[in-house]
Design goal:
It is built from three helices and 15 strands. The chain is mainly beta.
């Protein structure tokens, strides 16, 4: 069992905490020079650029040559496999404590002494070692393991085209139903007539600028998970 980090936005953190998000989709990245022409099944032996998964649990790729022979390579899913655990990185600040309460015998490296932007509170203020007052958050990419308050266990991994997502899976991505359609984050973002449409808008907000928008329909890892005690 591995313990791996994974980044989530504030909206997705709130969806996990609310129990609405149990899936995440991440773009499949092949090795340089390995264009992804096919994933799953037998493939097209007439296309030497054809790649696929022999076993989704071990993420084994194969390249099919013009003569029909294959050349095997191993590319594990970077987000883990069934049974592995993920610890969530999110925007935070800490460790923090009230002025005058410092205790040299207390280990402050704990979520108990952190604040999280996803909770919606004000931007925290803190004093550095030179007694200068600062205000701000630390980016999620810099969150250490000890500051993570959310742990997930992977229950399944598969690969599919982005646009293959169905309505139920879109709901599992954190989309919620409102009075007039579907949205994300308590109605603050990505309104659409269907869960799939709402998720497509969310996807584009995160990936379109990188050339991996909904219309590109990239291959994606589908990681299913359940929340466990951190």
């Amino acid at each position: 069992m591995r313990d791996l980090p994974i980044l989530f936005s504030g909206a997705m953190v709130r969806a996990i905490l609310d129990g609405r998000k149990t899936q995440t989709r991440r773009v499949v990245k092949a090795r340089p020079g390995w264009p992804i022409g096919f994933v799953g099944g037998a493939g097209d032996q007439n296309d030497p650029r054809c790649y696929g998964f022999e076993d989704l649990n071990t993420a084994q790729w194969w390249t099919l040559q013009a003569d029909g022979s294959s050349d095997n390579h191993q590319i594990p899913c970077p987000y883990g496999a069934r049974g592995d655990r993920l610890w969530v990185r999110e925007t935070f600040q800490g460790p923090m404590w009230e002025e005058g309460t410092w205790d040299p015998d207390t280990d402050y490296h704990s979520p108990k002494y952190c604040e999280y932007r996803a909770d919606g509170g004000p931007t925290p203020e803190y004093v550095d070692f030179e007694d200068n007052l600062h205000q701000g958050w630390k980016p999620s990419i810099f969150m250490p393991r000890w500051a993570s308050r959310i742990a997930l266990e992977i229950t399944g991994v598969r690969v599919e085209r982005l646009e293959d997502i169905g309505e139920e899976d879109a709901l599992a991505e954190g989309v919620e139903r409102g009075h007039e359609g579907y949205h994300i984050d308590g109605g603050r973002h990505f309104h659409a007539a269907s869960p799939r449409g709402s998720f497509a808008s969310l996807w584009d907000s995160l990936n379109a600028s990188r050339g991996l928008g909904w219309d590109v329909n990239p291959w994606v890892w589908v990681v299913e998970f359940k929340r466990i005690e951190a």
